[in-house]
Specification:
single chain; about 150 residues; mainly beta; 5-stranded mixed beta sheet; 9 strands
Amino acid sequence: MMSSLKVNINILAIFLVASLGRFEPSLGFYLGRRHVNIVNRLENHELLMIHCWQNGGNLGRYNLKYEEEFRWDFMDLFTFQQVKIECNMEFNDGGMPRRGHFLVYDSSQDVRRRECYKWCNWAVGIYGLYAFDEVDKRWDYEIPWPSNNRF
């Protein structure tokens, strides 16, 4: 009796995990591979210098020309591990460097007004960061450049 109960519990657990992976972003919940994209949309067409890391692990330094992008994919395991992606960014604004530190994804808190599900798209402009809203299919101004101008 006890062994059949364990088998039933294991089957139920496998079914639950398999079904969780099938939730779609349109349902307001997504468990699966996420994609973070950061594109240089600086209106002055300057080079965007970017240095990102995930949970302390270095994702590298990149010099993005206008319309070039940095992409990072990862598995979001929901409650099993916090995923946090941060970036330092810098560009030349009329001869003066403008720089800032940005949290672009954190599984434990809201970083944006509207949640990103499968795709977390950011565009960097001279006024700050814009997030792509997957539901309304538009870019929303989200985060201004820091006034202290440092990382």
